[in-house]
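Field: COMPLEX_INPUT
Field: COMPONENT_COUNT = two
Field: RESIDUE_TOTAL = 542
Field: MODE = joint
Values follow.
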Amino acid sequence: MNEHPAGRRLYAALQLLDRQILDADAMMAGKVDDLEFEQPSDGDPYVSTILSGLGALGPRLGGRLGRWLTAVHRRLHPDPEPGPARISFGVVKRVNNHVELTLRRDELENNELEAWAREHVIAHVPGAGHAPE
Amino acid sequence: MKKLLGVTLGILTAVGGFLDIGDIVTASVTGARFRMSLAWAVLLGVIGIVIFAEMAGRVATVSHRPVFDLVRERVGARLGLANLLASYFINFLTLAAEVAGVSLALQLASDVNYLLWIPLVTFLVWIVIWRVKFETMEQVFGLAGLALIVMAVALWQLHPDWSSLWHSASHPEVTSGEGAPTYFYFGIALFGATMTPYEVFFFSSGAVEEHWQRSDLILNRANVYLGFPLGGALTLSLMAISAVVFAPMNITVEHLSQAALPTVVAVGKIGLALILIGFFAATFSAALETALSSGYTISQYFGWQWGKLVRPKEAARFHVVVLVSLIGAALLALTAIDPVKLTEYTVVLAAAALPLTYFPILVVANDPDFMGDKVNSRLSNALATGYMGILVVVSVATIPLMIATKGGA
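Field: COMPLEX_OUTPUT
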């Protein structure tokens, strides 16, 4: 990582927040639901972590809907007090219409629900492994 | 031929959007009650959907981002979530109505009670989504929907008094014996049906599924400029044949079978066969559009992998949402809830949510960061801004009108 990890100046709220994340295979891998900043002692703050999934969106939205999303996240997560899924900004390859990562989505923390739905529901239906013809 | 087949996405979207179970009956009802004096509402809706579907398709083609992705980014996560809940709810009710609608079309053909058809219809919708390639799906159902052109033939065969039909369409007035609120309520129902949001959810997602590139922008235009006006012309034909056959006799239209009657009177057995195929294709297309849209909207809001291009295993949550929505909708349809009433209400509810769907499309279509040199022209911005005004008025007026007229009773 170089001295200026942010590299580019972005209006975080406009150009990162709520944007689609794509993994290394260009598969959709969640949204940028919230961001974490780091403030170095000698410089501008920079984005250090992308937070993604219901555990990030719920607290950000707040209110009744937000609490409800957070509760769903807690209910579906194996940990009793789960935090939001975190993606280090270091694995971001490019930011354009989408936020592109260098990792595959099975390596991300926010992929648990997708993996669960695949293994426990969809994989059991005949034809799940073939593209439609 | 390949070029000719390229416009089936637009035809499928329009036929499934304008001529779903509720709209077939609504167009017949308005023809019988108001003759052609509400034709302007269909025309206004068709121009509106052409403007915004072209924009949504262009945005999807250039930026590879479908409508609900934009909704969240542009109106914000919170209002976007409210829109998602409203859109999903409306979509779900419409899906239930369409499943019942396809079954009603089969009942007309078979005399077997429609409730018995519901499980089979649900399974067929699901298997098409699960196994059939997007392109094949749009070609088969888009082309089958063209059977509805028989309604235009029927209008010709009925030898109507064209000048009187034209006069009724070009000099709109509240028909005697009907109240002004009822007249405008049906106006909104027709307008809302042509601009119903699941059309742009489906159309823009379809453009992404078909991998449209910049060079396909002309394909986008061809789809929009052919498909939607064709759907509008079919709606107007249905309204006109209903006006010619039912209005002089003061017959009230309430059922799908009645909507088929003028065509059978005019064209005979072949007319009956074609209209049944057409009704089946149109309601089935609407069921496909709403079932897929339920998965599209939720997945696009939360950023999950969606679509029919990848193996179902790779879009697991998308397919779970579609499957659960379909089963839920089938159960609702099995309660014998009246599908015609149900879509009449959902169309009006959808009208109230229209600005939230179309505003983000307009904003992003003007953003050079996404669109490069393919941003809106001044003309389309001027038209679209005018329509935003109309949509806001409609969305404010729609629910009070629904309550005041007791749903157009």
